[in-house]
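Data availability (excerpt). The following record was deposited with the supplementary files.
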Amino acid sequence: MIGNEKFILDACCGMRYMWYNKHHPNTLYIDIRKEEKGFIKDCPEVCIKPDIQADFTDLPKEIKEHKFKLIVWDIPHFKSRKLTGVLLKKFGSLHPETWPYDVNKGFKELWGILDNYGVLIMKFSDYHVKFDAILDVIPEKPLFYNKNNSKGVSETRWFCFMKIPLDVNK
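Predicted structure:
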């Protein structure tokens, strides 16, 4: 059972790079992977230590029975079958053929555990999958997103979704 103090979910915590406090007491950190320090030879201090090892496309019962006020979803930005190379080992990958289904299913899983008036923040880089393609497989539309003026190979955006009950606007 997840305690009431855990009202934030990081659904792909990885190495918790984006967190200011990497052990925020109100956050439940999950990831499909669990890796000890040294799993990347060139980065001996890097590890992946979720509180619960879980796949965002098929959440365990203990998570499905909980509601979260904020969900952070930093899905992998690469498509690959194998986790070779430092970047793929660090950040994981989407399956090249099933990524649309996986992202759609994952969003629905997370939307189901998001509390009414809760916020889901999705971070995504268009390195292998363009923004329009990723948003096409997500059944909700973001309220807003940030846009940077990056001129590099890829751009990263943060999308904000809010679960507003259907009857609130009647």
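Summary of structural features: The first helix runs from residue 61 to 64.
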